[in-house]
Design goal:
The protein has 57 residues and is mainly alpha-helical. Helix content is 75%, strand content 0%. It contains three helices and no strands. Helix 2 packs antiparallel against helix 3. It starts with 6 loop residues before the first helix and ends with a helix.
Length: 57
């Protein structure tokens, strides 16, 4: 599955990552869990988010 990114997607992703950088490690995990549970994501997308989470924590 190929994900098409446009300006809005990229801006949202950047805003999300900047928001996460300001959080404690425990809160980052909670935010990621909530985000994954609230959105219909592919396994590739979830893997990508888990990679970002590992980098931030």
């Amino acid at each position: 599955m190929r994900v098409r990114l446009n300006y809005i997607n990229i801006k949202y992703l950047i805003d999300f990552i900047v928001y996460l950088i300001e959080l404690s490690k425990d809160k980052v995990g909670s935010v990621f869990s909530d985000f994954i549970n609230k959105n219909r994501l592919s396994s590739v997308q979830i893997n990508f988010l888990e990679t970002i989470e590992e980098f931030l924590t």
